[in-house]
């Protein structure tokens, strides 16, 4: 599936919920299904800077596609990174670099987060794109 198709799926899923309490609960459920980072990668090097909670992300290239795993010590943050990983994992680095992130605004995520969590969200997106740039450079 393309990044855009996955993002559309996420938008449709969030549209099914009437209020933000239900959406938060859904994010918590998504966090529970997150592909967890292996303990060996839970290092300071893999912590996303700019997040209030601790969020670790690991990326590796597998058959030309970037595969992300992650974890967080905060349940809502774990849900946020799960959404991002769902959209960007198993995609070509170039596609991640070029991907739009408007779906985050469309589901209303940024406006319903505290300012520190919203900043963390921006940092997460930035880090995933930086991984994609680094791996794309290796491919060239």
Task: Fill in the keyword field for this structure.
single chain, 140 residues, mainly alpha, Sufe protein. Chain: A, two-stranded antiparallel sheet, 6 helices, 54% helix, 11% strand
- Say how many strands there are: 2
Share of residues in strands? 5-15%
The geometry reads as globular
**Strands of the largest sheet, in order across it?**
1-2
> How is the main sheet built?
2 strands, antiparallel
Question: How much helicity do the residues have?
Answer: 40-55%
Question: What is the second-level CATH architecture?
Answer: Alpha-Beta Complex
Task: Quote the average pLDDT.
Answer: 93
The helix tally amounts to 6
Low-confidence stretches: none
Strand and helix order? HHEEHHHH
Distance between the termini: 24 Å
What is the total domain count? 1
Decide which structural class fits the backbone: mainly alpha
Rg, rounded, reads 14 Å
**CATH domain class name:** Alpha Beta
The CATH topology, please? Sufe protein. Chain: A
Characterise this structure.
By secondary structure, the protein is mainly alpha-helical. The chain has a single domain, classed as Sufe protein. Chain: A. It is 54% helix and 11% strand. The chain has six helices and two strands. The chain has helices at 3-15, 20-32, 75-88, 93-98, 102-106, 115-139, and strands spanning 55-62, 65-72. Strands 1-2 form a two-stranded antiparallel ribbon. Strand 1 (55-62) and strand 2 form a beta hairpin. The protein is globular.
